[in-house]
């Protein structure tokens, strides 16, 4: 691979994860006024409109079979992942969900090995994965004794990790169709919003406009729609196109790291020695997974 393109892919992946790692605070603040499914639908509806304005050209699918990949990516990466993660949070600890979802690179590696000819399993990936997971556990539980099993919530979190891995492999497959990345991401968003409609009917969709237009809430929902959805899904899909599904997915290890650092800066939370050790181990695992043979 061209070194310049590889560096570009790493920068795009890091930028994406940096923004995704800060979305926890925005979502946490919004949950005081609107429900998780309302946040989910609004952020991707805004993201869809932004991508439409950014590149207002219709995507013409060459083969009907290719559209099935877009539909599957929308179902996995938009609808199922976020619904499963949000529902899991209502049944188990946030720390449990944080650790479990962060193992999605493991499933990504397995799926890529099975379904993508160009991406095979490497020993260094599993070594890096093991080191990073220990670090993520230390960050998430911060040396406390809160680790408890909550079967339903934890199983839903595992399913969330699996469907995100499927999304990563699907986007790598879609990148091989050589469509414009903004158009491709917009189509994924479209299918994600379509598949979200049954959930809206079941869980209800009635956001309070007065609450939504309050400056803080408006800023946070726009941040999630413009930054975390429209921009980040384009940059993530571009990174997958340049680096591959496996190398890009390991950047997910950084989400807990960025969340902890952001919480210290924005919310004034204290960082402990256990968290620092966890951050060091997580970064070490990332470097091991990404290093060349």
TrEMBL record:
It holds the Pfam family EamA. Residues 9-140, 152-288 form the EamA domain. It is found in: Cell membrane. Its main location: membrane. The chain crosses the membrane at residues 12-31, 37-55, 67-84, 96-116, 123-141, 147-167, 188-206, 218-238, 250-267, 273-289. Keywords: Cell membrane, Membrane, Transmembrane, Transmembrane helix. It is a multi-pass membrane protein. InterPro entries: AA-Vitamin_Transporters, EamA_dom, EmrE-like. One of its GO terms (cellular component) is plasma membrane. Belongs to the EamA transporter family. This is EamA domain-containing protein. It comes from Desulfitobacterium hafniense (strain Y51).
